[in-house]
Design brief:
single chain, alpha+beta, Rossmann fold, D-amino Acid Aminotransferase, Chain A, domain 1, Dna Ligase, domain 1, 3 domains, seven-stranded mixed beta sheet, six-stranded antiparallel beta sheet, 17 strands, 34% helix, 30% strand, globular, binds adenosine-5'-diphosphate, binds magnesium ion
Length: 372
Amino acid sequence: MNKKVCIIFGGKSVEHEISIISANSILNNIDMRKYKVFGIFISKKGEFHEAIYRINKSLKYNFIIKKQNKVLFSGDSNKNVIIMNKNQIRSKTKIDIFFPIIHGTGGEDGKIQGLLELLNKPYVGCDVESSSICMDKILTKEILSNKLVPTTEFLHFSKDEWKDDESSITKEVVKKIAFPCFVKASNLGSSVGVFKVKNKKELKNKVRDAFKFSERILVEQAVLRPEEIEVSVLEDKKIIVSTPGRVIPSDDFYSYNAKYLDGESIIEIPYKRAMNAPSLMHELKVTSKKVFQILLCSGMARVDFLFGSTKSQKKAKLYLSEVNTIPGFTEISMFPKLLSNDGIKLKKIIDSLISSAEVKFKKRDKLTTDYY
Ligand SMILES: Nc1ncnc2c1ncn2[C@@H]1O[C@H](COP(=O)(O)OP(=O)(O)O)[C@@H](O)[C@H]1O
Ligand SMILES: [Mg+2]
């Protein structure tokens, strides 16, 4: 019998809409001869609904949200998803593999992974620990800089620390980081809560703005006129690292507007500078794999870099920027595009992700949980 794969999408996240597009793109590319697809939609309010699919006029599949059908989860592994309608049980289903595709808050930070872990079923992508580390820009940088992966100079502080001693933190920023710098909320995505700051006055204002999104803030040195590079990492039986690509943002930096709204950012696949510089190509690939392993990633990740100079390092070099564990999955997103450029099409990516989820689950399931 075909395995039942449940795509979980939407979410209480600023990337809710992108997640819907990503989910539809998976729906249109998953091998329906091999898998039976089921959908769970999480609304912006955080409610779980059943999502069914239909084929539209342009012969594309589309998820349709059954607002009246709520989803409950059960520890009974033979009937782990229960569909409720007006407080009545409508059906019970056994999901074999979960495929969370919620970008950002609630989906990429280990929270949904925790729920799936308790359901004791395989799920696609990074586990709880790895997801929460990668979502946290401060933890990611702390861990990677300890492992000698180059990242820009940074410092971080909490809301209370800022309240207690704003002036010494400002002095430290001026001394250690200097301007321009980037102020970032520690755990968001899509450039929300990310600000480029040119002086002390802006620092004060943007720190205040960033604290609206997070209790902890990161201030990091700016890479000047950076080239933004992205690499896809896919785990099948082994770790596959794509040829890098470059994003040329339409804005001063790759802001929310440049990512999703103005449609004017340009993509360069493959990244030309690396195609002409074997050592840079090697560094990008080796570092991406190393970062994937250090941060305990599984299944997939998109590893982002900045190439350029900084105030303290005049010679242009490569800096690890961040790791996205549930990268955009739309047909025009970098993650599938980079792999597709290397001949790995979306259908194959989805297949690899599902099979590596099953392998990971089997390994974990063998671990002893009894002491005697
Ligand atoms: N240190 C930096 N130097 C130059 N540009 C940066 C720096 N940090 C971030 N940026 C710019 O801000 C964008 C968003 O920052 P990033 O850390 O990737 O956050 P997000 O998780 O929201 O994508 C980057 O794509 C880049 O354009
Ligand atoms: Mg980014």
